[in-house]
Amino acid sequence: MAETALKENFDVIVIGAGPAGYHAAIRAAQLGLKTACIDAALGKDGKPALGGTCLRVGCIPSKALLDSSRQFWNLTHLFGEHGITATNPAIDIGTMIGRKDKIVKQFTGGIAMLFKANKVTPYYGFGQLQPGNVVTVKQHDGTTVELKGTNVVIAAGSDSIELPFAKFDGKTIVDNVGALDFTEVPKRLGVIGAGVIGLELGSVWKRLGAEVTILEALPDFLAAADAEVAKTAAREFKKQGLDIRLGAKVSKAEVKKNEVVLTYTDAKGEQTITVDKLLVSVGRRAATKGLLAEGTGVKLDQRGMIEVDEHCHTGVDGVWAVGDCVRGPMLAHKGFEEGIAVAELIAGLPGHVNLDTIPWVIYTEPEIAWVGKTEEQLKAEGIPYKAGSFPFAALGRAVAMAEPAGFVKVIAHAETDRILGMHLVGVNVSELVHEGVLAMEFSGSADDLARICHAHPTLSEAVHDAAMAVHKRAIHKAN
Fold first, then answer.
1. Which pairs are disulfide-linked (predicted)?
2. Which of 79, 226, 273, 321 is the most buried (most CB within 10 A)?
């Protein structure tokens, strides 16, 4: 058995170098705290790769493939409207995947450079919290080091949920990692789960020629989103050829001769379909297995998430937790803010994250984004409101771009006019949603937003006109 060596003491030890962890580590170091960050992930080349799921196999690589596939889709479906034609267009999947891998390596290497520049000490291996704020690190070479921290920030992230009847094999039945590395376009791609990952990666391979069938157990499409947004998005996805089947509960997935036979039940009874590849995207769970030794005092809830208060403190002196392994949405940018907030709290500064103004984005075509409450939530809570919307089809810039699908909706309190939510579906709404975030953070009203001059012609005018429509003042649509 390898010896455990006590390496050194730190002001802050961060377990996990994903979005929440590396932000916490860098900010702590900026504030003059002696900081270490532990991460176990390895890249395709077998070398340590910082950045967590987001940089390695999530946000960044998926956006690279979404952009590549969008370019190909536009070439084959949209460019004709502009008078642009191409003979026998083709896409080299190996080159596309290689481009994605190059981008990933650039950004994971970038985190290592930032650690060096900010004097964050990295440890590569599996970290486990022991009692007394001690962290043991089982390094990749088999040795173990022991670190002592005045403060420990747990940022362990999350893992894909695996279905008992559809175990990941990395080839035929895959999670998001496998779906980012197909060597060719599958003729038939099955997807279990019509959430963010299923829709985004399903869209990638559909644009490149796959027949994509998405099976969603819930009866409603994108139940967390505004109902009108979900309805508009579903209509556009149907036009693109995505076959989304709601109320479809999968019970079996059998691999036979490099194919997967799926058995599911819907309103019509038991049915089967056969696909060449199966992506399972039914959610993620906190990666807390094996993270806590006996006697740390840190508590997990029934879902395996670390229990924390509103300041991300675990209740154990000097132990904090942030990101996907704690309550709140599993979003990289939520982790960013929590990591920074905790570092500042440790340094004696004010730190706070407003979970009510965290924006959500789905990077499909059209994009879907929102912040704050939906109409359905406000009705259920008995909160009086007014809503105004504006379609991209009435916007000169969107039509000139041949991107007329979708709309922007602004929801405000009926009595105070304070903005309670903004819901968008359409081109580039991942950027536009931040007008709503900013307005809500400053307790802005719909009238405030309506009276702010927006450049013409821009997509942001849809936000302006939607705010005007709350009080039936929109100029470019009937109120």
1. 54-59
2. 321
